[in-house]
Every structure is written in structure tokens, then in C-alpha cells.
Design a protein that fits this description.
Residues 189-243 form the Rhamnogalacturonase A/B/Epimerase-like pectate lyase domain. This is Endopolygalacturonase. InterPro entries: Pectin_lyas_fold (IPR012334), Pectin_lyase_fold/virulence (IPR011050), RHGA/B-epi-like_pectate_lyase (IPR024535). The structure is a single chain. By secondary structure, this protein is mainly beta. The chain has five domains: 16-182, Galactose-binding domain-like (Jelly Rolls, Sandwich), CATH 2.60.120; 187-288, no CATH class; 337-408; 496-666, no CATH class; 676-757, no CATH class. Helix content is 6%, strand content 43%. The protein has six helices and 64 strands. The strands form eleven sheets. The chain has a 19-stranded parallel beta sheet that branches. Strand 2 and strand 3 form a beta hairpin.
Length: 762
Amino acid sequence: MNMAVTQGLELMPPPFSAGLDIWSQTTGRPGTPTYDTAAFAAFVPSDPDFDGCLEVQKVNATTRLRWMQELPITPGTYLRVRARIKGMAGVLPDVAVAAWVGTAAGTELTALPATGPATALTSYGEVVEISAIIGTGARAGVDMVWTTEARRAHFGLDLTGPTGGVIRIDDIRIEDVTNAYSADLLGVVDVLDYGAKGDGVTDDHAAFLAAISAAGARRLLVPEGVFRIDSDLTIPGPVTFRGTLSMPDSALLILHHDFTLPTYEAALGNDVAGFRKGLQALFHTNQHIAFDMMGGRVNLTAPIDMRSLVGFDNANVHLVLQNGQLRAADVGDWDTVSTTRIATYDPANPNLLSGVSNVAGVPVGARVSGVGVGREVYVRARNTAAGALSLSQPLHGGAGTQNFTFERYQYLLDCSGFSNLSNFECRDIEFLCRGRASAVMLAEGGSIARFTDCDFDRPKDRGITSIGRGCQGLTVDRCQFASSQMALRAQDRTVIAFNTNNNDAKIRNNRAVLWAHFGVMGGTGHIISGNHFFAGDDEAQGLRQAGIVLTDVNLKTTITGNYIDNCFIEMSNEYAPEPNFSGGFSFGGLTVTGNIFIASGVAPWFNWIVLRPLGSGQFVQGLHVSGNVFRTVGNRIDRVDAVDTTFGTLDYNRFRNVIFDNNAYNGVDYPTESPCVVLHDQNTNATTWVVDTGDKLPFGGWARTVSSVVMEGRAQDASNATRYEMPYVDIQQGPNNDRVNLRWPAATRGRAVVTVRVDRPL
């Protein structure tokens, strides 16, 4: 910080007693006339106030004195030039520190100030100190502020005013006073020293670049002030912001060393602007994969439109937003935009609404409702020229022209503008929605969105919303979902924690409290494990809604090790444009194992596993429910499984590979089994034994297969003789097709263990 130390420079001019041939009468440049030939000046070896001095008579309008030694000017360094003088005779002049200043090439910079403050001499014999500080930063106390173009100078004095006066000048002193400005900031480069103004008007971009270049590994200091930066700025090293930056939305600010919310907040002057700039930078830097909020809170007054913020619509690198809180502020634009339009639906174009009136007024990302519209159907894209809307899922009905309602919820983070956003992760983020806003809307396309250790606190309408295919491989791990409608009855709740439209979601180890639905899941290949989701209330014999809604038929999905509390699993085909079965797959491909199912205070007709077919001809193929615990608290229920026949029924004659086994039932009147083992006691001799499955077959299905008949003990006839013949079996007997008959060649009595299945395995 001291040129004499760091650069080995001799700043102090020699005393006048060493000779006047190194003192110029003009600029101090080589070849200019010196004071050893000046008739108007002489060295005075003895003076009562000075130990040798130069006596000068002012003979010109401006009499100049310059040391001919050239000193380098370095940005960030401050020099003080001073001298003691006194008036001796005549009309006394004004005196000021002065200099010749030039570029590195030796060109004089005439536009820069060449003199410091002038001091008027007013009395004879009075010793007065003349002083000025010179440097490249507009800092307090700097008298001659130069630009970073200044690279060399010759220092001295100027005498101005009336001629004829005589003064004496003590030896001139030049000192490095940089430490007076930065003694507490050793190793810091101040942008003011490189020409930054900090006035909020001047574009300081070039000055910042110069300071950054000079800083190297040293810390950059942005002092008090407002520094306008009109274009992209990257600061690779450490930086301290005491002032703030004023930047357009499109300009990037990339802080490689201090890539955290507190630094960006300090740089932009408030939490929202800092968060926006930091999140924007995350998508544009290749130096970081994570933007760390460092536990900070951002109070949002409007949704963050990620596509507009980032400036492009396709991102496919792993990026992480972590460790902070996004809070919906008390004021702001969070109102749902709701509109109704007439549109036409044709199942031949299952993901399209055409002929939409005033289509420009329908926002992308709006949820669609109307006749034949399933849950969580969203506007995926809009074609204004064609008057058409692309939908996230087909409609199961509603063919023809009708009114549709579109509701656009407002989200803290809105990624809907991206055509593709993949590998974006939120980690340790609390979405503090406060019943004012929803949390996150995913991109229209992309894959591997992740939410890890996040809190979704009281979203107004939705936690995580997928409007298209951007939920491919969605991963939600160890998150907390707290509803904004906890005080409502279960059947009155409308908020939903998340939805999917695409395949391979991993929903693991989460906790969801009192939602309408924990998840509405389109697509297949999901893993749902280790979650606790509950949705009860205090109403006697209260109604319940589905915790998980599975909307595709052949699911390839596992539901394992969850705590399913006062809600149920629902399988539906509500995204089928032709809900009547006409070929291919029907309900199935689902494994439900090792879960805890509990319900309290529910009506007897409550069920934990519900099939909701829309249309006719659907059936079950490949459903395995095993090793679960079903338990009621308070009221008993009839059974754990049911078919909602509001819009359709099942074809029981086509059930295949349907297994309910090794489950524990408590407070359930008719435990579901298939294979169903029936211990039949025939106490009277008969040729036909009617074996009743006792309403245990899944979904009220038929007794389609008898896989074994084992006699326990002797089969006897009327004369008590042992019968060694085996009976044959009639399946699908009785008014509900849930009985089987054992047919004997003669009247027989005894005990049979009969294993009945609701399906045909082959």
C-alpha cells in the first residue's frame, strides 16, 4: 500500500541545498529550463524558520516550480505534496500545489486538474503550509482527482496572482498517504480508485473492470454510493459491498467467490433484487451448480417468472437453489386469474381444445375445469393464431362445445415459461406461502426436478404443479407439506400437494398434513415409499378424500412402507379420452406392500383402496396388496376395498393376477383376501356343498378360480363310511357370483379347506 515500500521508490525530493538543477521552471519534463539559471530565484542557506530554502520573486502571471523526477501514478495510491512558505516582500501571491500529469506514453492529460487548492498569503514572515492530496479516486480529502489514464507526474508549486512579490519556500515533501484511506483494508482494491463515481448516473462498468483486473486475489471494495452498471459484470474474486449496484434486469451479475444471497442482497440493496440476480446468475455461470441463500429470507411480492429472469427457455444442467426461505409478502400480486371460455373438445385430438373464444386471455398454466375434465388438467401451451389450447392430459368426456373455466394460480417460483428445464433442484428451501401463494410450478418440459428437505408451508392452492411433461423423474425426498386448509372438513379441502403427468416419480419419506390430496399422479413407473400423509378431521363419521390418486391404468408403480392416515389410494382412468375399455391395458401394475393404513371416526363405508372406473369394460390385471396393516380407531368399517360405480363398472370376468394376502385387519368386518382360504364345515350329508367366500373377495369380485380343495379329516357318507372320491367344483355361483359349489358323487359331510381366487392367473 506504500509505494516507497512496495515499489522501492524514492518519493521525497532532495533539499534545495542539493542543487537547483533538478527543479524546472515549467513542466518538469526533460529539457525544460531549470532554477539553477533563473535570475529571479536563489538558494538561501540560512533562514530563521527554514534550514535552507528557495527564495523566488514572482515575475510572471504564473510562476511554476516542478521537480524533474518523474513519479509513477498507480490506481489505489494517494500522494500528498506539501511545502512550508512565507511572504517576504512586495505584493504577495497565491500559492498552490501543482503538477504536470501524463499518460503511460508521456502524453499530457490536459483535461485533468493540474493544481490543488490555492492559498493566499496575507502577511509577511508568517509560515503557511501548502498541501494537496492527489489520487485516482474521488475520495474524501483528495484535492486532485485523476483518472486511471494518469500514469506519470512531475510535482511542485504554482505562484499565481499579482507579480513582484517575494516568497521563501522550504523543502518540498512528497509522501504516500494511501494508508490514511485504507489502513483498515489492507489487501483491498477500491473501485473509486479506478474511476468509479457511485453517483447512480455514470456507467461505472469500465471502472469496475479496471479495478477487478488490478485486484487479482485481493478483495474488491464497493464503497458507499450507487454504482450504475449497464451491462454484464463478473467479479471473480472476493468482494465487499458497502454501496449498491443499479443494473437493468437483463444484465448479469456473477460473483464467483461470494456466490451467496447475502452478497447479492448487499450488492443490489434489497432481498428480492439480490435473489433475482443470484438466481439469474446460477443459470449463466459454469463456476457454480448451487446458489446458497445462507439461511436468508426473501419476501416476494410477486411470482418469480424464471423464464423471463433467465432469458432462455432450455436448461439441462444440474443446478441447485438451497438453504433459505421464500416468503409470500403481505402485499403483492397473488390473486388467482379466473376466466371462462367456450371451446370444443374432440377425443380424436385428445390433448387439444379448439375454437377457444378470446384464447389470448387464457393464461398458460391455468387449471381447466368443466364437464368431462379430470383432476389437475392444465393449459400446457397456447396457439393464439389457431385459437387452440394444448392440455396436459386428455379429457375423459366433454366431447363437443361447452364452457370451460380456467384458473391460473400464482406461484413463488414459476418455471412454466421453460420449454425444457431439467435437473433443477431445490434443497433445504422453505416455501412460506402463508395461504397467499402456491409454491412451485414446474416447466412445460424436462426431467429430474428435485425437491429435497424442503418445507411447503400453507400453499394457497398447490404445492408443486406440473402443467406438462416437465415432471419426468420428479424426485420429492424428505419434504414437509402443510396445508392452508387444516381447519376445514376433509371433504371441503381443495389444496393439493403435488401432481405429475409423466413417468418415474420418486416420492419418498415426506410428511403431508391435511390436504385434499397428497398427490394426483399421471404417468407410470412411480415409487411412493416411506411417506406419512394424513387428512382427517373431527367430524363424526366424517368423509375422506384420496391421499394418492393414480390416473393411468397400467401403473408399474409401487406404494411401499407408507403411513396412510385417514385417506385412501384411488385408481382412476380419468385421463382416458375413450374411457370405455377397447383393448390394451386396464387397471393394474400396482404393488401395495408394507404400509400402515389407519382411519379414525370414519363412516362404515370408508375404504382405503378404491377403484374409480370411468366407462365400461375395465378390469383389474396385476394388483398385489400384501403385508399391510389396516386399522380403524373408534368406528369399524365394512371393508378396505371398493369400486366407485358413479361413472362406470368393472368386468369381473377378466380379473387376472389380483392378490390380497398376508395383511392384518383391525376394525374391519370383511377382511379382503385373494386367494381366499375358506374353512367350510358341511354338517349334513349333501352332494352339493355351497362354499361362501363371505364378502372377502376384492372389489366385490367373482369366485373365478378354486386353486385347491383339501379335506380336513374324513369325508363321510350317511352310513359313516369314509368317502375317498374328490368333488369337482362349480365356480361363480350365487346371486353375486362369489360362491363356489363342491359337487360330490354321493351325499357327503365333512370339513373342506377351499382356496378361492377372484381372478384367473392364466
